[in-house]
Amino acid sequence: MTPEALPAEAPPSDASAPLVGIIMGSRSDWETMRHAAETLAALGVPHETRVVSAHRTPGRLYDYARAARGRGLRVIIAGAGGAAHLPGMAAAMTPLPVLGVPVESHALKGMDSLLSIVQMPGGIPVGTLAIGRAGAINAGLLAAAILALADPDLAARLDAWRAAQEAGVPEAPA
Ligand code: RP5
Predict the structure, then answer these.
(1) What are the φ and ψ backbone dihedral angles of 17, each rounded to 5 degrees?
(2) Radius of gyration, alpha carbons of the chain
(3) Domain PurE, which positions (predicted)?
(4) Ligand 1 site: residues with CB under 6 angstroms?
(5) Average pLDDT for residues 48-53, to the nearest whole number?
(6) In the CATH scheme, what is the code of domain 18-157?
(7) What is the ipTM of this complex?
(8) pLDDT of 81-128, one tens digit each?
(9) Residue 90 near residue 98, CB atoms below 8 Å
(10) How far is the CA of 93 from the centre of ligand 1 (A)?
(11) Which segments are annotated as binding site for substrate?
């Protein structure tokens, strides 16, 4: 296929161009969301990180979500806490798969975040992960697994990551 024949929303040819967009409602979410970024980095998945708030920067969210597919992103990981509308609003404005990470809040320990993210109306899905660090790690792994469906090299790296994890679990507790 010649470059001229590529569809308008074809991914960039640059191998280092981000495939996963990690967005979060506040810089205070980074302590949680960095685990998604570190997981993707360990698997060699190009990604980007942005602070995009559904409430404080709605215009930024609109622009980001609307442009995401055209920029070559394949998956969005969205983390937010409290009234956590970011993943759902992002999902409403992009056809890309959106994985939601409930960030643990001070007041309600992340139950507010979880329920805000998980209870989407039928028609606009958000794949909701666990509250906090585990959810961020698993969002990274799930994004990698989605991409690995069409990327054998990444699938091999994911297999190796799992094998290393298995090998690192001791048989005895002490
Ligand atoms: C949400 O409000 C963010 O996702 C964050 O989890 C929470 C608190 O934000 P900050 O007040 O710490 O900026 O929008």
Answers:
(1) -65, 140
(2) 17
(3) 18-169
(4) 25-26, 28-29, 53, 55, 80-82, 103
(5) 98
(6) 3.40.50.1970
(7) 0.96
(8) 999 999 999 999 999 999 999 999 999 999 999 999 999 999 999 999
(9) yes
(10) 21
(11) 26, 29, 56
* pLDDT(158) > 60: yes
Q: Say which residue the tokens 């990444």 belong to.
A: 154
15-53 core/surface letters (b: 16 or more CB in 10 A; e: else):
eeebbbbbbbbbeebbebbbbbbebbeebebbbebebbb
Q: What is the mean pLDDT of the chain?
A: 93
Residue 96 and residue 91: Cα distance in Å, rounded? 7
**Encoded tokens for 7:** 């569809």
Q: Where are the domains of the chain?
A: 18-157
Mean pLDDT of all residues in 15-24? 95
Give which of 65, 67, 69, 79 is closest to 127, Cα–Cα: 79
Residues whose CB is less than 8 angstroms from the CB of residue 159 and which lie 6 or more positions away in sequence, other chains included? none
Mutate to test the pocket of ligand 1, among 23, 28, 101, 133 (most ligand atoms within 8 A of CB): 28
